[in-house]
Amino acid sequence: MTAKISLKDVHKAFGPKRVLAGVDLDVAQGESVVIIGGSGTGKSVTLKCILGLLTPERGVIEIDGADVLTMDAAERERANDQIGVMFQGAALFDSLPVWENVAFGLLAQKKVTRKDARGLALDKLALVGLGENVCDLSPADLSFGMQKRVGLARAIAADPAIIFFDEPTTGLDPIMADVINDLIIAVNDKVGATALTITHDMQSARKIGDRIAMLYDGKIAWSGPVAAVDSANNAYLDQFIHGRTDGPIKMALRA
């Protein structure tokens, strides 16, 4: 079966700094895959390469079996139309009320009228546990946790086939982080999307992922089902999930 997302030998560097050095990763239709790794390991770069915000020097990136790196601009736009993104800092527009933030993409592409967009926004906000009372508020009037919910509502506004979650629980207290994790699971089930998440939060990774892939030194150092994480017998993964200072990751940093 063709993977929904497939990365094959993807390389990306910024000058002399090599960030991705042959990333191979498949995400099946309807699967939730979480990429873990420390800061600066290339998690965000991987997402940006899939979205077309960055262009790798080498490799293949496929969505539904079609290499997005060889598409023309119109084809690439159509491919990206099926992707929703929940950004790390919510990335809401302070000058727009909540409902316009949720429907921003649809309004910008003139896919809906403003009246219909407001109704759609209300429906999506309800899915993330927010009511009509927040619809006309400014994002600045919301707590950070509520802003994260609005960001999730915006990510699913167009009922995407693929959703990217960029550090969805960063900056949240443990209780609110768990609320967001539960919402991500519920929304993925409701929308039926394929999910790709990047995070360093192992509690979140274990809860929302079907499978975990660890990115280290520009490559996938380990990949497997969540249930296999603790018995993986991989030194890099073991050090990371237990937060140990001693191990191969530290040795590599010292080299």
What can you see in these coordinates?
The protein is an alpha/beta fold and 255 residues long. The chain is built from 10 helices and 10 strands. It has a domain of 151 residues: Rossmann fold, CATH 3.40.50. Strand 9 and strand 10 form a beta hairpin. Helix 5 packs across helix 6 and helix 6 packs parallel to helix 7.
Strand and helix layout:
Layout: E1 5-14, E2 17-27, E3 32-36, H1 43-51, E4 58-63, E5 66-67, H2 73-80, E6 83-86, H3 98-102, H4 104-108, H5 114-127, H6 144-155, E7 162-166, H7 174-191, E8 194-199, H8 202-208, E9 211-216, E10 219-225, H9 235-242, H10 248-254
Parallel strand pairs: 3-8, 3-9, 6-7, 7-8
Antiparallel strand pairs: 1-2, 1-4, 4-5, 9-10
Name its key features.
255 residues, alpha/beta, six-stranded mixed beta sheet, four-stranded antiparallel beta sheet, 10 strands
